[in-house]
Amino acid sequence: MDHCAITASAFHKHAETYRDKYMDLTMYDDYYRQFCDALRSGPVRVLDAACGPGAVSRYLKARRPELDLLGIDLAPRMVELARETVPSAHFAVHDCRRLAELSGPFDGIICAFGLPYLSMDETTAFIKSASEALVPGGVLYLSTMLGKPEDSGVQRSSTGDQVYVYFHSEEQIISSLHACGFAILTQTKIPSPAAASKKTTDLIVIAKAG
């Protein structure tokens, strides 16, 4: 079992706890709004990668009801909760490291805190896959926890489950985006939520595909 499957197993097991802790968090809503506003007008296809229990999808559909929205997550229970939360969207159990297997292209891809569970090599590959899955001018939203890559690795949750957490540098993320032809629209850093188990700095990036 690889590190993502081990982490997804923990999220599957404690999906309701995660939902109750973060579902009504609003501190990122302004950045989700910027993502929505950067999309072209009219019906568009959007992918919510590592969608969790559907909090981000719920916001997107509330602001842009016409979105054809697909959410994917590797934790089956998360997908079940997302379907309950946003019945007007589509959800599937799928690995965000395999975007090429999805039926694209997409006008927008949002990955809100999926990157902390991907290694740097996997993150670089995800950004490349996203560039290939987006239409020209499509919009990519990324958020992650900043930190020293050497601090990455397996952690024990409060319930004793193993979770693999990866810290990324701002420079590496931006460099990968530029290498794939993205133009940066928004690049900002904010403190992590008060409910977070570890205090970090969050990086939020919104970029447009070439």
Oligomer: single chain
Q: What is the H level of CATH, i.e. the homologous superfamily?
A: Vaccinia Virus protein VP39
Helix content: 25-40%
How many separate structural domains?
A: 1
Distance between the termini: 36 Å
Overall number of strands: 9
Radius of gyration: 16 Å
Mean pLDDT: 94
* Strand portion: 25-35%
Tally of DSSP helical segments: 7
- Order of strands side by side in the largest beta sheet? 3-2-1-4-5-9-8
Give helix and strand order, one letter per element, not per position: HHHEHEHEEHEEEHEE
What is the fold named in CATH at topology level? Rossmann fold
Biggest β-sheet description: 7 strands, mixed
Q: What would CATH call the architecture?
A: 3-Layer(aba) Sandwich
Name the shape in a single word: globular
Helix-strand makeup class = alpha/beta
Low-confidence stretches: none
CATH class: Alpha Beta
Question: Could you please describe the fold and organization of this structure?
Answer:
By secondary structure, this protein is α/β, with parallel strands linked by helices. It has one domain (3-208): Vaccinia Virus protein VP39 (Rossmann fold, 3-Layer(aba) Sandwich). It is 34% helix and 29% strand. It is built from 7 helices and 9 strands. The protein has a 7-stranded mixed beta sheet with strand order 3-2-1-4-5-9-8, with helices on both faces. Strands 6-7 form a two-stranded antiparallel sheet. It is globular and about 45 Å long. The termini are far apart. The relative contact order is 0.17. The model has no long low-confidence stretch (mean pLDDT 94).
